[in-house]
Amino acid sequence: MSLWTMQEAVAATGGQAQGDWSVDGVSIDTRTLQPGDLFVALKAARDGHDFVAQALASGAGAALVSQIPDGVEADAPLLIVDDVLTGLEALGRAARARCDAKVIAVTGSVGKTSTKEMLARILSDQGRTHAAVASYNNHWGVPLTLARMPREAQYAVIEIGMNHPGETAPLAVQARPHVAMITTVAAVHLEAFEDVAGIAGEKASIMQGLERGGVAVLNGDIVEADVLRKAAADLGVATQWFGASSEDFKLKSVQIQGEETLAHATVLGRDIELHIQSLGAHFAMNALGALACISAVDADLNKALSSLALWSPVKGRGAREEIQIGAGKITLLDDSYNANPTSMVAALDVLAATPTKGRRIAYLGDMKELGPDEVALHVNLAHLESITSIDQIHCIGPLMKQLHVVLPESKRGTWYGTSEEVLADLTDQIQSGDIVLAKGSLSVALAKIVDAIRKLGHGDPKSDTSK
């Protein structure tokens, strides 16, 4: 069965159709478009209308446009709407309305994508599961994810992000989740908020989209827990708390054992062990919250525990790789996709705790959007206990230059203005036996460093569980 027939798409959007067509997918990028997709001509850095002819030539089943683009045949298969983004949102709402899936929406300052991937991995073993690709969590990512949702889906996991006040609730209302999870609240996007309590209030607005009888799964260990508690009470939303302070989903201990994180927890009165194939206490906390979501949608907790043990982070989100170099190897911790003070602390803790016969080396890039305290938040990293266990720290970007200055001389590596400048020095800085962390905000482009490290040898990713 097609994802969208022409008649369904017209009914959803109120647009005008050319041709008689159906589509099997939805795409916004000609580079990843599959034959039979509906190409959505969004306006971003470039106007998607400029690529409609190319998309149709590549096999797109139709295109969602606000005007007939240049270079397109008069009888080309099109769905013409007043505004393309509004049309995409309408498709998303219609896809959500026609599907009986149990929907979980995930937000939080840190851990959204990893938790979404955990849930997708767990639920895919219990029924047909649809989940957001990568970090499609913004004003176009959420409706795109919804528009792609198969009508036969039994579970769906939607990631919701924000940069400014007022972004979360409208996306949550589109998703209409049965369960809304907030992983944590931290000092992220402080340029747009007065304080962390303001961020907590914005995150709490995800509860405005909950279906009647829905459940909010909340982190009880954060300082701003009372902000979440009040928001839930004001909305009359049932809550399920997780963390060391929770009774029903209680984290009791976390330890690193070899190449896995082992956590002991109490889940609904039952003592359990969580085995996670990646290192970090933050993964254990997110996993506990994921189990609370699993319980809230009445999925099988025993199967969930087995599935969780098979999950590992995706590329750029703490994925661990072994890079063969001659007769030896280096271990790469790829956390290059994003960074803020909370996730940076977690990543450095993981690096410090990971067993190695060689050195522990970090490449740290600027953390962006931190507001007036941005310099202090970078400098304060020098005082972390984990720094004592790290042998050398290289810094990238003007903000990380402030950290570089205050690092102990024995640990102070090289400061670089850009990631590109690092590449020429990598072979002299890394040797067999080392474990290497790359962590920074996306715009600093530490992925260039990660890719260059992979090219030093032959990468062997342990897992890529994107679903």
From TrEMBL:
Q: Does the keyword Cell wall biogenesis/degradation apply?
A: yes
GO terms assigned for molecular function: ATP binding; UDP-N-acetylmuramoyl-tripeptide-D-alanyl-D-alanine ligase activity
Q: Which residues form the Mur ligase N-terminal catalytic domain?
A: 23-69
Catalytic activity annotation: D-alanyl-D-alanine + UDP-N-acetyl-alpha-D-muramoyl-L-alanyl-gamma-D-glutamyl-meso-2,6-diaminopimelate + ATP = UDP-N-acetyl-alpha-D-muramoyl-L-alanyl-gamma-D-glutamyl-meso-2,6-diaminopimeloyl-D-alanyl-D-alanine + ADP + phosphate + H(+)
Q: Where is the Mur ligase C-terminal domain?
A: 327-441
Q: Which residues are noted in the entry as ATP-binding?
A: 108-114
Q: InterPro entries, per this entry?
A: Mur-like_cat_sf, Mur_ligase_C, Mur_ligase_C_dom_sf, Mur_ligase_cen, Mur_ligase_N, MurCDEF_CellWall_CoF430Synth, MurE/MurF_N, UDP-N-AcMur_synth
Pfam families, A to Z: Mur_ligase, Mur_ligase_C, Mur_ligase_M
Tell me the GO BP annotations in alphabetical order: cell division; cell wall organization; peptidoglycan biosynthetic process; regulation of cell shape
What subcellular locations does the record give?
Cytoplasm
Q: What family is this?
A: Belongs to the MurCDEF family. MurF subfamily.
The protein's role, per its UniProt record = Involved in cell wall formation. Catalyzes the final step in the synthesis of UDP-N-acetylmuramoyl-pentapeptide, the precursor of murein.
Name the record gives this protein: UDP-N-acetylmuramoyl-tripeptide--D-alanyl-D-alanine ligase
Q: Which organism is it from?
A: Parasedimentitalea huanghaiensis
